[in-house]
Design brief:
One of its GO terms (biological process) is amino acid biosynthetic process. By secondary structure, this protein is an alpha/beta fold. It folds into 2 domains: 2-93 and 284-302, NAD(P)-binding Rossmann-like Domain (Rossmann fold); 98-275, NAD(P)-binding Rossmann-like Domain (Rossmann fold). The chain has 11 helices and 12 strands. The longest helix has 19 residues, at 284-302. It binds D-malate. Residues 49-50, 72-74, 97, 278, 280-281 line the site of D-malate.
Length: 307
Amino acid sequence: MKILVSDPLAPEALERLKAAQGVAVDVKTEMTPEELVGAIGEYDAIVVRSATKVTGDVVAAGKNLKVIGRAGIGLDNIDVKAAEKAGIKVVNTPAASSISVAELALAHMFALSRQIPKGTAGLKAGKWEKKALKGVELYNKTLGIIGTGRIGRELAKRAAALGMTVLGYDPYITQADLGDVQVKLVPLDELLEKSDFISLHLPKTEETTHLLGQREFAKMKKGVRIINCARGGTIDENALYDAIVGDQVAGAALDVFETEPPGEHKLMGLDQVIGTPHIGAATIEGQYRVGIEVVDRVLEGLGVQRA
Ligand code: MLT
């Protein structure tokens, strides 16, 4: 079986893949879309993270392709419908990076509430901006989590431990599903009205595109802080910009953008906005788990024995 790894994988995962019986692995990262279409025909499986786009053209050219492995959660870089139609299995790692993403969301909540990036930038510029950096505590505040799947729940546990009240909105999950995780499920509008911090943890689908827009920002508590470590496009960026400039939203922390990389984005020009370049799953531990899991799933999909 020939397997193409087209984005970087954790070294331990690559070793595990190479050690499997009857498998030949090629690692070719940073291929152009044309190069990928040209090469894919000889492979039985491809393993990608988020950089490689497995488009309909790639699927069509993948005459021997049996499995597409996504080392991560979101499948938005894969034409899943085309793959399914062609009888190609698509496997991902839905749980492996949950803690990493939840921790980044929490880090952004702290960074926003205490303006840590601004303090750092000031110090590096030789300034001592103590008066301008009065923050707020997370303790006793309400966190609204939109999407209470694996990541949302990990964040909820950590927020509850900090003394926050946690509300959740998720049309696909019941209170019983949440077990003893301290989240109270409420309708979206109630979450918007009551939350001091709102963190998104949901995929981008037709249903969730611009889930937070002008109407939703208007409903929110004045001074709310928004965190998005999920997917760009779930927030209407123009509406968010207006809500910050209009003082309705006190700040936003964005790890994801409608277009990535966002270039010189007007939101990043605002003092109240902090950001990271889509690094939710980018931890040593997260990438180790993601890599091992995707390798196991790809080998399983190919019916190949692990070493
Ligand atoms: C994921 O979907 O697993 C994360 O957003 C990480 C990524 O795509 O890089």
